[in-house]
Design a protein that fits this description.
Strand order of the largest sheet: 1-2-3
Strand content: 5-15%
Distance between the termini: 15 Å
Number of strands: 3
Largest sheet: 3 strands, antiparallel
Number of helices: 3
Radius of gyration: 15 Å
């Protein structure tokens, strides 16, 4: 059997925590920041968690099966 390759773009975007959850950086924090509130920008700093409905797909990209 050949080795299963990890998707290169996915390994840069997702991180697996110690408990097995998969985190990602939140979007909408690159530009057009003047109209966004401080509270909203502060919340966007924190990592988001991959939703249960997308978990199977992301795990396949990261070869975690």
């Amino acid at each position: 059997m050949p080795k299963v390759k990890t998707n290169s773009s996915a390994k840069k975007r997702f991180k697996v925590t110690g408990t097995g959850k998969i985190t990602h950086q939140k979007s909408f924090k690159r530009h057009i920041l003047t109209k966004k509130t401080k509270k909203r920008k502060r919340a966007l700093r924190k990592d988001g968690e991959v939703h249960e409905s997308n978990m199977r797909f992301v795990k396949r990209l990261l070869a975690l099966r």
